[in-house]
Amino acid sequence: MKKKNRAGILKRIFKLLFSFYPRLLPVMIVLILVNAIISAIPSVFQQNIIATIENARNTNLPWEEVKGTVYYFVGILIALYITSILANIAFHQLSAVITQGFLAKLRNLMFNHMQTLPIRYFDTNKHGDIMSHYTNDIDSMRQMVSQSFPQLLISLVTVTTILSIMMYYSIWMGLVIIFGATLSIFVTRKVGGLSARYFVRQQKTTGLTEGFIEELIHGQKVVKVFNHEEEAQIDFDKVNEQLCHDSKMANRYSNILMPILNNIGYLIYVAVAVAGGIFIQKGVPNFSISGLPFSIAVVVPFLGMSRQFAGSINQVSPQINSIVMGLAGAERIFELLDEEEETDEGYVELVNAKYVDGEIVESDIQTGFWAWKHPHKAEGTITYTPLQGDVRMFDVDFAYTPDKVVLHNISLYAKPGQKVAFVGATGAGKTTITNLINRFYDIADGKIRYDGININKIKKASLRKSLGIVLQETVLFTGTVMDNIRYGKLEATDEECIAAAKLAGADEFIRTLPNGYQTLLDGDGSNLSQGQCQLLAIARAAVANPPVMILDEATSSIDTRTEQIVQEGMDALMKGRTVFVIAHRLSTVKNADVIIVLDHGHIIERGTHEELLEQKGEYYQLYTGAFELE
């Protein structure tokens, strides 16, 4: 990580902290300063006490005449220590509030931003690595914000205060300590720099390791069915060895740094004691702001200050390592926050509507009748178009990456209520077409019109609200069966959810579950069969009651007997709707109004089942079994 980049990340962290806690953070900084300054001041009073006692001895003053002065300084010391204790308690309480609050707000910021990212981001980044932002990276920032920053500030203030006091009493003695401090800083930069470099690597390889583990856990059944355990172990060992190496090197340099600095601190202590003794013995004139001569009253406090000074310098080193780790975590978090949001320049909205005097107007209540609200800025007017589900594509080209075009010159139409089926080998572009209809990806060239409106003009939220999707890979969420069905329409009543389940043919098996519709499901639906999960996904789409349905091999996980049960429900679900069906099982698309055969992103055939059989082309070969879809 470059120094300029570190400075930018630090600035951004403090900007966030001040924006979240504009009042509490300055209070915490003041408490840190008070605590640091008070911890350095006792040496001043120690010098005064020693000087008072030494002066009394040299002048043969009785104890009764000087004890008041000694008790006065001791009383001030006690008051300072009590103040320091109270400031320390207040600081730690405030630190807990600010640190945990900051991390909670940062997680919310990350999650809210992640919700706005395009599908492309999740397709191109490992899910385990994304999860690592919320765990490992956040934890490294927690240590940096709660411990490293405050301790570093305390150390810097303490060092500055002690150094000022030293120069006040003796510049010669202060130079001895400055020489030792310079040596400590040099060692810290050399050894600590190597440690910091590997801590940054450790942070990145931790994310990669977590991504690998998440992937293996998700695919554990595949690993076992293909006896891939040994190969998986070999692959994991490579990732784990890299993490082990980076962590080992980071901690190796970190662990040798502290003993070196401690021993330098002892050398500084010895150097101060020897130099002080020589200066007193030789009668070297003291060069200081205070004007005090060299004496025990000057040297003894210097010994204490030298230990405190070295200790503060030593405290900087481990905090720097924590800060570097925190900055590495922050860099990854800010990379997530800096990801470009899904753009949406649409201005046409889907609204509840009704007819008044033969004209469509917007309604404030649920009517079950939807229309596109289309403002025309040039004319300053608003028109309403009924939501019908008319989808048309004109000369559409698309590429996930610039160097590989997936779709070539695709033109098709689906009138309201029509069933359009896509057939073709894997990679032919079937799912890609449906991804373009719901604008998971935007087209490179051509046009897509929905009810006569350019799809780019429609707000994505409104567009997707008008579409129902059943994916080949079923996704369920932790919650009850009823919650998972209601996911398609959050305001749906229990009766509507049950009706949707009956329509999909899921009601019968749901009622056999331990608690029926209130049965709690695991996040991945592991307590259901794959076919049952698919039926719930179909019911979830049914309760949304959209005019356009996209079925991406929706019955692929259902056995033949269950397919017969659900087919009637599917037919009822598709009735009156525009439906796009992606199918490998050709028996499911025989009754489609039009079947489109794709090959490497080109439409090579289109027509009804009977028409395509008569042509005796690619579809005929597929249907009669001469060719396999894959």
What's the topology here?
Elements (H helix, E strand, L loop, with lengths): L2 H18 L3 H17 L1 H17 L4 H53 L3 H6 L2 H43 L1 H48 L1 H6 L3 H54 L13 H42 L11 E8 L2 E4 L7 E7 L4 E6 L4 E11 L2 E11 L4 E6 L5 H8 L7 E6 L2 E2 L5 H6 L1 E4 L8 E2 H6 L7 H11 L2 H5 L8 E2 L8 H15 L3 E5 L7 H15 L3 E5 L11 E6 L2 E6 L1 H7 L2 H6 L7
Parallel strand pairs: 7-14, 7-15, 10-13, 13-14
Antiparallel strand pairs: 1-2, 1-3, 3-4, 5-6, 5-8, 8-9, 11-12, 15-16
Helix pairs in contact: 1-10, 2-4, 2-6, 3-4, 3-10, 4-6, 6-7, 6-10, 7-9, 7-10, 9-10, 14-16, 16-17
Describe it:
- Helix 16 runs parallel beside helix 17.
- Helix 17 links the parallel strand 13 and strand 14.
- The relative contact order is 0.08.
- The chain has a six-stranded mixed β-sheet, sandwiched between helices.
- The protein is 61% helix and 14% strand.
- It is an alpha/beta fold and 630 residues long.
- The C terminus is likely disordered.
- It has three domains: 335 residues, Up-down Bundle (ABC transporter transmembrane region fold), CATH 1.20.1560.10; 38 residues, no CATH class; 233 residues, Rossmann fold (3-Layer(aba) Sandwich).
